[in-house]
Prior knowledge:
Layout: E1 3-7, E2 10-13, E3 18-25, E4 33-39, E5 46-51, E6 58-60, E7 68-73, E8 78-83, E9 92-100, E10 103-107, E11 111-116
Amino acid sequence: QVQLVESGGGLVHAGGSLRLSCAASGRTFSSYAMGWFRQAPGKEREFVAAINWSGGSTDYAGSVKGRFTISRDNAKNTVYLQMNSLKPEDTAVYYCAVKVGGSYNYWGQGTQVTVSS
């Protein structure tokens, strides 16, 4: 079993920055790829960013590429999402997830990010 707890969300003006954190426990965190997803009101959950087990490979949704950076600290069992140049359309609940067995099947409770114009 894996437990994930996100933090760092909040209210920010457009153009501002936030750093989300996701603390993991319950498994060998460093063995698994991790991802960030988001869900805006009335929309489906969408992929934001992913990072492999070592941190040596990352992937981003086109809408956030160049503005967001995913990273991880395996010694702290934590994955981060640095979000810069935030836009109102980035407003959503952000979730982290662990990829075990080829799919994201452990999820955190989410953290709200609100970007005002």
